[in-house]
Amino acid sequence: MKEQQRRPTLMDVAQAAGVSRALVSIVMRGVPGAAESTRQKVFEAARELGYRPDSRARLLRSSRTKLIGLSFSSSQPFHAEIVDAAYAQASSRGYEIALSAVANGRTETRAVESLLDFGSEALVMISPTLTAEELDRYSGQVPVVSLLRNDVGELVDAVSSDDIAGIRLGVEHLADLGHRNIVHVDGGIAVSAQQRSEAFRSEMQGRGLEATAIPGGPGEEDGLRAARSLRDNLPTAVIAFNDRSALGLIEGFRASGLQIPSDVSVLGYDDSQLARLSYVQLSSVSQDAPLLAAAAVDRAVDRIEGTVGPAHVVRTPHLVIRKTTALPRA
Question: Which of 144, 170, 217, 186 lies closest to 320 in space, CA to CA?
């Protein structure tokens, strides 16, 4: 078996460039003390050897890791969009992101503790399911930012979207189209499910309309089951807990020979990449993943650097109208 190639070191670069190790260190750190011709010679040697500075070792020597630990659910596409945006924002603030997934067989506690073991200076947790007391315990070690959930007490930062405003936008849109028989498929035990269900009931009752909510969940299969349960008493419009549930609803309705939106309008929540697919074009309440991610990273960095105390940030969602909502059927 071929011996694994050793990672090039500063000494390797120094020997290749014909200079001292100290001079290579000066060049790589970008500090004064080396002539331009020497810098070019060192950089050329580094490129040929494939040398890259070990930034993690440098940070550990300075007792800083500049890492923000981010936990997310591997089963939620919307979380992946937040992760993408978090990387960009962390880089702009001079930090790196360390990821840890909550998955089948891997608990949220394990995901968080692995981030702490890795030296994360703060935690950003997307839709955490731990109790407020458990979150408080972690906040005693490093700053903790809860993303998409705000019922986390006063010691933990929270960045979330206004679920009441989001559901209001959805109901208002459908009511303005003329819908009166609107059903909400809830999110089961998912984070924010109860808040959205309560907001739906309040908004419908405020308009003098019957508020019907049926059991659902955050996945496509939950939407499929909900669609089957609604076939015999079909509403004119449905507001799903999220986009994945909405996709399941659409598939279930179409399997029954129904047309979207001429027979029934379907509104999602999140405005995820799934909603924007050209063959889906799902109307959805947008939580604006990039803005949420940026706000969460900013809270984490500001807490690390001691410029602010814990706070709850609530962003206002907006409605994106596409092709799955229309006037009610005659």
Answer: 170
